[in-house]
Amino acid sequence: MDTLQTVLLLIAMVATMVDSHDYGDALTKSILFFEGQRSGKLPPTQRITWRKDSALRDGFEIGVDLVGGYYDAGDNVKFNFPMAFSTTMLAWSVLEFGKSMNSDLPHALEAIRWATDYFLKATSIPGFVYAQVGDPYGDHKCWERPEDMDTPRTPYAVSKQFPGSEVSAEIAAALAASSMAFRPIDLGYSARLLKRARMVFDFADQYRGSYNDSLGPWVCPFYCDYSGYEDELVWGAAWLFKATKAQMYWNYVRENIHNLENASLNSIEGGSFTEFGWDSKHAGINVLVSNLVALNASDSTPFISNADNLVCSVLPESPTPKSVSYSPGGLIFRPGGSNLQHATSLSFLLLVYSRYLSKANRVIHCDNMVAGPARLVQVARRQVDYILGSNPLNMSYMAGYGPKFPQRIHHRGSSLPSIDQYRGQIDCNGGTQYFNSNNPNPNLLTGAVVGGPDIKDSYSDSRSDFVHSEPTTYINAPLVGALAYFKSHPS
Ligand SMILES: *[C@@H]1O[C@H](CO)[C@@H](O)[C@H](O)[C@H]1NC(C)=O
Ligand SMILES: *[C@@H]1O[C@H](CO)[C@@H](O)[C@H](O)[C@H]1NC(C)=O
Ligand SMILES: *[C@@H]1O[C@H](CO)[C@@H](O)[C@H](O)[C@H]1NC(C)=O
Ligand SMILES: *[C@@H]1O[C@H](CO)[C@@H](O)[C@H](O)[C@H]1NC(C)=O
After folding, report:
1. Signal peptide span per the entry (predicted)?
2. Atom 6, ligand 1: which residue's CA is nearest?
3. pLDDT tens profile 321-363
4. What atom in ligand 1 is closest to the CA of residue 229?
């Protein structure tokens, strides 16, 4: 072997070493993160111990128990629309990849149950669905720990007169998906979730409208429904079909999918077949349905062709028009904030769709290029590895994973001294000095994945730069499934 070959071999070895990640460790941490986002009365089993009970009177002023659920990100509002999507994705992660979770599976189910217990409360009064708790303007102008919040915890509901089909149908999807996750271990709970899912879906479908119009500035611009509510209705029906096998839900999916069909590549309105996240469910519907109709050609239109087109629009080597950009370091980008949500949710879809392709013994044709299931897995692995540290900065974007990770995440609880460190109240403006400090956050929010680097692969690790430094539940939730897959397929 000559010197050049030795050097090349060494480089290859280093590259392999850098690329091999402890997916099991990352999986454990990605689930642990949800404990840091808990609202309500924490159980004795709580493992993120710097967090304490908070918001114990949510809903009491109107005589409804709305205690529990999750803070969506670095603030202390309970936004049920993205919370429900994160729950659906956690449940989908368990349904697809739960077998690879081993000792993490009970924790994943606990993370789901923390949300579904809350959604049962938020939908307990027929004809109403609670959409949010906490005045977002009051919350956002303060930098306070959830444990000593003194901002208005206003509950917001949609109703027959003031409908919100997107938030209601997404909660129905979350309940239906979760009912399947619980079926093997708690039949009674599973049945309760499914019954409620059907009821909430009926409400969403019967009283149609966007919560944009019903709740106005309380939800926009925070989690404004840009893509309309039709996608959540079809998504909810698809999950109910998967959970019940009732033909009526399948008919609903078939009859209503055409409301989404005309949305073009990259359009926001209507949610194009390339869109998947807390707002648009379109791409998720096609991938979910592909696994339901895999053996029935007459049912596969337009779902399979749209899912194929989604994959073609993501694969870097595809000659067809792209719906994503890639940074020089190889990370997927889409416009808007919290970019890693796109990397995690698209990776999840690629993995699920690769399983369908394998089962159906199919490949995808992107014009003259052909991609098989292994290629989809490879692209997803590249994204996950990037997040875990295989990137130009050698930086993990998951707090507490690897030797180098974000130190100043935009997160109130993580950045303020914990109750154990400081028992007094830190009021609305009392947190400002900590917000402005250059010190690392005192509390490690283990497993939190932040918005991520910019499109040039740089990251400033700045608390005020929430677009890049804020973690959210919907960045982590699809990653839980992807990490479980790679844990059992480490190379
Ligand atoms: C929701 O509100 C935003 C901002 O006002 C708007 O762009 C969007 O079209 C609205 N969506 C629906 C479904 O009304
Ligand atoms: C979609 O586009 C086709 C062709 O332009 C049109 O006939 C159809 O009505 C459109 N559907 C919807 C739901 O807008
Ligand atoms: C395929 O779909 C058609 C139309 O929905 C249905 O009648 C038929 O029973 C399905 N076949 C299978 C094998 O599921
Ligand atoms: C990242 O790691 C590689 C391989 O160890 C090294 O060559 C490179 O200089 C590192 N880059 C940074 C920014 O630390």
Report:
1. 1-20
2. 226
3. 999 999 999 999 999 899 999 999 999 999 999 999 999 999 9
4. 13
Burial 410-434 (b: 16+ CB within 10 A, else e): bbbbbbbbbbeeeeeebebebbeeb
Ligand 4 pocket mutation pick from 393, 394, 404 by most atoms within 8 angstroms of CB: 394
Candidates 357, 334, 337; CA nearest to 346 is: 334
Tell me if 133 sits within 8 A of 200, measured CB to CB. Answer: no
Residue 222 CA, chain-centre distance (Å), reads 16
Closest ligand to the CA of 268: 1
User: What sign does the dihedral 198-201-205-208 (CA atoms) show?
Assistant: positive
Residue partners of 419: CB distance under 8 A and separation at least 6: 50, 52, 145, 147
Which residues does residue 398 pair with via DSSP β-bridges, in sequence order?
449
Query: What domains, with CATH codes, occur in the chain?
Result: 20-488 (1.50.10.10)
Say if CB 174 and CB 138 are below 8 A apart.
Answer: no
What span, in angstroms and rounded, lies between the C-alpha atoms of 74 and 53? Answer: 17
Residues 6 or more apart whose Cβ sits within 8 Å of residue 260: 230, 231, 234, 270, 271, 273, 282, 285
CA of residue 391 to ligand 4 center, whole Å: 9
Alpha helices (H) in 268-339, listed in sequence order: 282-292, 303-314
Dump pLDDT digits (tens) for 65-105: 999 999 999 999 999 999 999 999 999 999 999 999 999 99
Q: Where are the alpha helices (DSSP H) in 183-269?
A: 187-206, 211-215, 230-244, 247-256, 258-261
| Cα-only R_g, the chain | 22
